[in-house]
Design goal:
Elements (H helix, E strand, L loop, with lengths): L2 H19 L15 H4 L3 H15 L14 H8 L7
Protein name: Phosphopantetheine binding protein
Pfam family, one: PP-binding
Length: 87
């Protein structure tokens, strides 16, 4: 699997989790991977739920103090692509 393939797979997994926490309102059909979450109306509770789901599903830890700029799917991908071995 190429790095580009791994990134695309990771992006789809994050979009899937995003759709779960946003009740299907936010997904790859309704927003772009570089759309800022605050622009979508995502609540802070939904944001924290997304992080929890990503950590659980991908078996990673996201330090929010060190990563305060995780505001798009692409930014999550940038952070996680090297941490997720199966992506």
């Amino acid at each position: 699997m190429t790095a580009e393939d791994a990134r695309a797979e990771l992006r789809q997994q994050i979009f899937s989790l995003l759709a779960e926490v946003a009740g299907g309102v936010l997904d790859s059909q309704t927003i772009e991977s570089d759309t800022e979450f605050p622009e979508t109306g995502m609540s802070s509770i939904e944001y924290l739920a997304l992080i929890e789901k990503i950590e659980t599903k991908l078996d990673v830890f996201i330090d929010l103090e060190e990563n305060q700029d995780l505001t798009t799917v692409d930014k999550f991908c940038d952070l996680l692509v090297d941490q997720v071995p199966s992506a």
